[in-house]
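Format notes (please read before filing issues)

Several people have asked whether sequences and structure tokens are stored in separate files. They are not. Every record keeps both together, in the order shown below: the sequence lines, then the token lines. Line labels are part of the format and must not be stripped during preprocessing.
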Amino acid sequence: MRYSRQRELVMRQVQSRCDHPTADEIYTAVRDDCPGLSLGTVYRNLNGLVEAGRVRRVTIPGQADRFDRTLAEHDHMFCTRCGRVEDVQLDKTPLDEMIAARPELAIEGYALTLYGVCSACREASGS
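Then the structure lines:
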């Protein structure tokens, strides 16, 4: 992957955030530093960074894709109230054992996303 100032700005933005930003959020954050930057360029750079294994794409059905700086294996929790995405570490041993017990399935991988209400929303509502 060739170096470009635009790609560097996009990468730096993803690396500096822990909130799993969307392409629109990244574009909004970097456009003042690079006035000629388009949203399409942000998308192309994010796709290239994902393909190069430098950024991880987080897909939530019905939502814009998010981008994650953490490449190590982990899962996510999506808050159904505020839309926040958080990293979670789960013991997936039982799931891995279930997959291993089904050799007729050619499982190549999986992504686990939990849906619920984050602690900030729960505190705000008094629950």
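For reference, the curators noted about this record: The chain has a mean pLDDT of 94. Residues 36 and 56 are 26 Å apart (CA to CA).
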